[in-house]
Design goal:
heterodimer, A: alpha+beta, Ubiquitin-like (UB roll), Fumarate Reductase Iron-sulfur Protein, Chain B, domain 2, B: alpha/beta, Flavocytochrome C3, Chain A, domain 1, FAD/NAD(P)-binding domain, 16 helices, binds flavin-adenine dinucleotide, binds iron/sulfur cluster, oxidoreductase (chain B), FAD-dep_OxRdtase_2_FAD-bd (chain B), Succ_DH/fumarate_Rdtase_cat_sf (chain B), SdhA/FrdA/AprA (chain B), oxidoreductase activity (chain B)
């Protein structure tokens, strides 16, 4: 590993770390054995939300520690947990209207439209875009725009209106998936066929085949062409 | 161009041969050719990386050395650490592990009226399930059937899978998809509502269902939200199980958890225990980097084994052929198989194809290792081996914009390091990805220990010696639900009084002393240690000196 050491500051403490590391690796290199602020290590779970500044620059920056390389003079802190409320509701009791989402999260109407959330999203999601879509009653659009949300909460930590919008977006997606998306007739049909026992005999036969028979069948499989 | 100059030259070679390769389809290997390739190059066949178990139900069988070490480990708790009859919690069903299988089990047990506790290591959903990108299989199209799916699964597993488990997997599959959809999972669909499905390695029908390239995340965040909305489910985060509790008769009866925030033990009495702790990539078998989440340390296998449960297929791991080999910061992280499903070819240093891209994973991984060992691979500046995955080819085959549309998570991941997937090929090398085996189960998730059920990646038998992409997310939902239902039912039937204790641990310790002497390690591992110390892997993903 190349050892070009740079200065960084972890919660104010000075450390020298190789510049080839991610923020997460740098924390570990410095000696932190983490239980908070680390999850999948692949950019999917949102556990390692990190805030930093670079000395001499007033801008606040946001990143996922596992996906971002360290830079010289970084002043960093993790935000592994940010209080976010999730009101009690049961999806099964909802119909799928925007009004229902707003009844559950009425505070969304307080959005100032300041767009700070969008600037703080490490996934480059148009956060204000999905909040606005929801406020206009467009659940499908809100679900679509927010799809890549990893629920890290950074947008919540920065919101002057204190809005927990990533939870509202999750509700939109769940409503879209369960209520609004067009249903698949082939899926329903297959389930009915299975329940009626249509494939039982064939499966029973396969289960009782010896290896050689299976091998032959497998080798003779017809493979559906690509589109 | 974002590659350092020695690599840049090689990228050009890939670009130059693209047009010609578009016209070639690399032939699939025959059964015998596959076997020869596997025996020569697959890590499962590297005999010196395995050891024989001497203690426990699988004594005499082989497993990777790193796994043997933790299976034959000692518990962190002392036999006397259980104050008499004192439990912080009592419940019907205790689910250990809050990933996909755990949440599916908890929801289903709650539906059946059981009181449920989920104990999990980090946060709910910090799990391999969250990371799955590629998709989930189910035979729900007209040209497909559970029987065709069955044959693909068992052929993929080299005909070693347990037939009853495969039957359950393929039969419950369409219903599992519908269950997820009813909970709000958004699958990729055509305007008429039919599912958009694609091929995966080893499939004979296009039956891979996707949620863009966030399939696992979409499933996991939905399940997590559903768990949170149920009052009958208590979630204990940062509380991994470190030992099971058993009755004097050897039946499961609860667990001891370690609260990681307070470093304090918690005792839970439960009528049934469901282990859903997932895989073990973070044990870094043979020094491989891994695609797995931080807590994938095989704990469930350790807990179950000490309590007397038999394991199955623990001598085989899945090395995903396409882990990132460059940039160094994300070495080992996964490049989803969907990239090959969409048409990207694998290309060696000379710009030539060397394997049909959608052979089963073990075959593709072996072919990549062969290219590198025989000098047709590429070495990165950090000394990591790799071959090219020709992502720009997707744009040529499926039209400009396809890469950005179909692979947003990956585009984002590489863009952070200045690599444009739709314009430049990427470097890949096999990464430790999936634990093919685990605790032996039957079709209702029973183990050889009464009242102990196992589901998901912690179980063994469903996939035999090799799992196909998209069958694990499916396994997690199908068997998670089965375990939940069965766990609730068993809890209902367990009406007599019972006394959880640690007798199994006293017996285990005696065996360890007799067979292994002193110097065994403490397990479960809970979390890997990547701090800078001699012998540790720096950065977790790097090819440290292990
Ligand atoms: C990067 C990646 C991509 C993948 N892509 C696909 C794909 O496209 N399609 C597919 O089908 N499969 C895919 N897989 C495989 C699939 O995601 C996993 O096998 C599956 O999700 C495992 O689910 P699980 O619930 O069994 O385990 P997990 O989802 O890993 O959950 C296990 C949980 O148990 C917890 N735990 C561990 N130890 C303890 C303990 N001692 N006490 C309490 N809790 C504990 C963990 O923290 C975790 O939360 C992928 C895997 C990875 C890593
Ligand atoms: S929308 Fe908010 S919670 Fe979601 S990824 Fe962006 S910052 Fe994180
Ligand atoms: S930060 Fe808050 S107030 Fe500002 S636009 Fe976003 S949601 Fe609205």
């Amino acid at each position: 590993m190349n050892e070009n050491l740079i200065d960084i500051y972890i919660m104010g403490e000075h450390h020298q770390v190789p510049d080839s590391l991610t923020i997460l690796q740098a924390l570990e290199y410095a000696g932190y054995r983490l239980t908070r602020g680390v999850g999948c290590r692949g950019g999917f779970c949102g556990a390692c939300a990190t805030v930093y500044r670079v000395n001499g620059d007033y801008h606040l920056k946001f990143a996922l520690a596992c996906q971002t390389r360290v830079e010289p003079n970084m002043q960093l802190a993790m935000i592994p947990f940010f209080p976010a409320h999730r009101p009690r509701y049961r999806l099964s009791e909802l119909k799928g209207t925007a009004q229902e989402v707003l009844d559950i999260y009425p505070e969304l109407l307080r959005c100032y439209g300041c767009n700070t959330c969008t600037k703080s999203c490490p996934q480059d999601i148009d956060v204000l875009g999905y909040v606005s879509a929801l406020l206009r009653g467009e659940i499908a659009l809100a679900a679509d725009i927010s799809f890549d949300c990893i629920m890290c909460g950074l947008c919540v930590s920065r919101c002057p209106a204190e809005l927990v919008k990533h939870h509202a977006a999750l509700l939109c997606r769940r409503l879209y998936g369960s209520r609004l998306a067009p249903r698949s007739t082939h899926l329903a049909q297959r389930i009915a066929e299975i329940r009626s026992g249509k494939f039982k005999a064939e499966l029973e036969q396969l289960k009782n085949m010896d290896r050689k028979q299976l091998q032959e069948l497998y080798a003779a499989r017809e493979v559906e062409p690509e589109e | 161009m974002s590659y350092p100059s020695p690599l840049e030259e090689l990228v050009r070679r890939v670009n130059q041969t693209r047009e010609q390769r578009l016209k070639q389809s690399f032939p699939r290997l025959g059964a015998e050719e596959k076997q020869t390739l596997l025996k020569k190059f697959h890590p499962d066949y590297r005999a010196d990386s395995f050891a024989e178990l001497e203690v426990g139900p699988n004594a005499g069988e082989r497993a990777p050395k790193e796994l043997v070490r933790v299976l034959e480990g000692d518990s962190p708790v002392s036999d006397g650490s259980l104050g008499f009859g004192e439990f912080e919690y009592e419940t019907d069903v205790l689910v250990i592990g809050g990933g996909g299988a755990g949440c599916a089990a908890a929801i289903t047990a709650d539906d059946a009226g059981a009181r449920v506790i989920i104990a999990t290591k980090l946060r709910l959903g910090d799990a391999n399930t969250m990371m799955a990108q590629g998709g989930i299989q189910a035979a729900d199209k007209e040209n497909d059937s559970p029987a065709i799916h069955y044959l693909d699964v068992i052929g993929g597993g080299h005909f070693t899978n347990i037939p009853e488990l495969v039957e359950a997997l393929v039969t419950d599959a369409p219903e599992a998809i519908q269950w997820l959809e009813n909970l709000g999972v958004i699958f990729d669909k055509n305007p008429d509502g039919s599912m958009k499905t694609i091929h995966g390695g080893g499939t004979s029908r296009r039956r891979m269902h996707t949620c863009r390239d966030y399939t696992g995340a979409e499933i996991m965040r939905t399940l997590r939200d559903e768990v949170k909305s149920r009052q009958g489910i208590t979630v204990l985060e940062f509380s991994p199980a470190v030992e099971l509790l058993t009755t004097p008769e050897g039946e499961a009866a609860g667990a001891i958890l370690l609260n990681l925030n307070l470093n304090r033990y918690l005792r839970i009495k439960a009528k049934t225990v469901i282990i859903t702790t997932g895989g073990s990539g973070r044990l870094h078998y043979q020094g491989f980097p891994t695609s797995n989440h931080y807590g994938a340390t095989g704990d469930g296998l350790v807990l179950a084994y000490r309590a007397g449960a038999r394991l199955a297929f623990i001598d085989t791991m899945q090395y995903h052929p396409t882990g990132v080999a460059f940039p160094q910061q994300i070495v080992g992280q996964l490049v989803t198989e969907k990239v090959r499903s969409l048409g990207a070819q694998l290309v060696n240093r000379n710009g030539e194809q060397f394997v049909f891209p959608l052979e089963t994973r073990d075959v593709v991984a072996s072919a990549i290792i062969r290219e590198c060992q025989e000098g047709r691979g590429v070495k990165t500046p950090a000394g990591v081996d790799g071959v090219w995955l020709d992502t720009p080819m997707i744009e040529v085959l499926k039209g400009p914009g396809t890469v950005k549309r179909e692979l947003p998570a990956m585009v984002r991941q590489f863009a952070r390091f200045g690599i444009e997937l739709d314009k430049e090929p990427i470097l890949v090398y096999p990464t430790l990805h999936y634990q093919n085996g685990g605790v032996a189960i039957d079709a209702m998730c029973h183990t050889s220990v009464r009242y102990l059920l196992v589901a998901g990646e912690a179980s063994g038998g469903v996939h035999g010696r090799n799992r196909l992409m998209g069958n694990s997310l499916l396994d997690v939902i199908v068997f998670g639900r089965r375990a939940g239902r069965e766990g609730a039912q068993l809890a209902k039937e367990r009406t007599g009084s019972f006394f959880p204790g640690l007798e199994h641990l006293s017996r285990w310790r005696q065996l360890l002393r007799e067979r292994k002497g002193t110097g065994v390690s403490v397990s479960p591992v809970l979390l890997p240690d990547y701090t800078r110390k001699p012998g540790n892997r720096i950065g977790g993903q790097g090819v440290g000196e292990v």
